[in-house]
Amino acid sequence: MTRSYAEAVTSLPPTGPTPRSDVRVPPRTPDLESLRLLVLVADLGSLGRAAARLGISQPSASRRLSTLERGLGLVLVDRSRRGSRLTSSGQVVAGWAHRVLEDLDGLLTGAEALRTERDAELRVAASLTVAEYLIPDWITELRRQQPELYVGLQVTNSEHVCGLVDSSSADIGFIESPQVPKGMSARQVATDRLVTVVAPDHPWARRRRPVTAEELSRTPLVLRERGSGTRQTLDRALGLAGLDLVRPLLELGSTAAVRGAVIAGTGPAVLSDLAVRGDIADGRLRAVEVEGLELRRSLRAIWPTGRRLIGPAADLVTVARRLGGRG
Question: So which residues are the signal peptide here (predicted)?
Answer without folding.
Answer: none
